[in-house]
Amino acid sequence: MANHRACVVGGVDAHADEHHVAVVDLQGRLLGASAFPTTAAGYELLIGWLRGHGTVERVGVESTGAYAAGLVRAFRASGMSVVEVNQPHRHARQRLGKSDPIDAELAARAALSRTATAVPKQTSGIVEAIRELQVVRTSALKARHAALQQLNDLIVTAPETLRSDLRHGRTMRAKVARCRKLRPDTQRLHDPAQAAKLALSSLARRIGELDREIAELDRQLERLVCVAAPRTTQLFGVGTQGASQLLIAAGQNIDRFRSEAAFAKICGAAPIQASSGRTNRHRLDPGGDRQANRALHMIAVCRLRYCPRTRAYAAKRTSDGLNKREILRCLKRYIARETFHTLRADLEALNST
């Protein structure tokens, strides 16, 4: 019994400036609660404070991929077992109220009861580097799309002489090139025509800069993805962007998934029962990582268009009575299974070096 009392379970409610932590024993008694700054020194103090209450069996942490990412790395470096905890259920908040110490205690109790068992992603390897570049690429794509839309809108409302030159008979790329060559008279910016020229040339230069940024990020991502997932990128229809999204969904520690079914669930590709009466069918899963699901969808669409084996499968399933959405669901589930095994082989080989 003394050994049981010596073991404790921690819980962390993470924030930008400080982390609130609570510790309970194996009987569920609250032993203490405190707050520590989100610095390297604060992480050392937090770990020391937890160990001062006994042997730490595991720690439940909220926001492991955001505010608590640095703390999770510190926990792992110190040899502690970490599980990911969701936000408290609204019923618990109705009973107990809402405060950071309460959330930390609920995180500890979720880890103690093993309600929370998910292992956080490892954020100290090449997959995290791919995620960081992918975040920047996504924001650059959104900015480019917004700039193109603004440029098109300004052309529509520009004075007639400028609009007639830019609007008709040109692709968007040609419009951007033409706008880049506009030379406004900065002494006459009170004239809408000159102001439009300045606005259009500014947007065109911005689009050019974003194009160069996206191209550079694509080159670096291709290099990293080829190192991290050489087997996966050899699969039919799996390119750099699709492989990078699936790597990000899996994480560097892909062994955190018990099976390929768990990976399919994370990707939103696991079948959900939609049966009633004499109808026996499954439907698409609206949950999971939507970017990973999008990657699976694009791979499936590519195979439906260019892969003879996939086209034959679709024809067979159509004759069985399935519609296109149901066929896509089946294909995405198969692709999730296929890519899970290649990703696991890739990451195991990578982690062993």
Strands, total number: 7
Structural class: alpha/beta
* Beta-strand percent range: 5-15%
- Tell me the number of structural domains: 3
Distance between the termini: 43 Å
Radius of gyration based on Cα positions: 27 Å
Order of adjacent strands in the largest pleated sheet: 3-2-1-4-5
Low-confidence residue ranges: none
Shape: globular
Written as H for each helix and E for each strand, in order along the chain, the element string is HEEEHEHEHHHHHHHHEEHHH
Report helical residue fraction.
Answer: 55-70%
Mean pLDDT: 90
Largest sheet: 5 strands, mixed
**Number of H/I helices:** 14
What labels describe this entry?
353 residues, alpha/beta, Nucleotidyltransferase, domain 5, 3 domains, two-stranded antiparallel ribbon, 7 strands, 59% helix
Account of the 3D structure:
32% of the residues are buried. This protein has three domains: 2-112, YqgF/RNase H-like domain (Nucleotidyltransferase, domain 5, 2-Layer Sandwich), CATH 3.30.420.140; 126-228, no CATH class; 232-352, no CATH class. With 353 residues, it is of the alpha/beta class. It has 14 helices and seven strands. The longest helix has 37 residues, at 192-228. A hairpin with a 4-residue loop joins strand 2 (18-25) and strand 3. The strands form two sheets. Strands 3-2-1-4-5 form a five-stranded mixed beta sheet. Strands 6-7 form a two-stranded antiparallel ribbon.
Describe the structure concisely for a colleague.
This protein is 59% helix and 10% strand. It is an alpha/beta fold.
SSE topology sketch:
Elements: H1 2-6, E1 7-13, E2 18-25, E3 30-37, H2 40-51, E4 55-61, H3 69-77, E5 82-84, H4 90-96, H5 100-112, H6 126-157, H7 160-167, H8 172-180, H9 192-228, H10 240-250, H11 260-266, E6 272-273, E7 282-283, H12 290-306, H13 308-319, H14 324-352
Parallel strand pairs: 1-4, 4-5
Antiparallel strand pairs: 1-2, 2-3, 6-7
Helix pairs in contact: 2-3, 6-9, 6-10, 8-9, 9-10, 10-12, 11-14, 12-13, 12-14
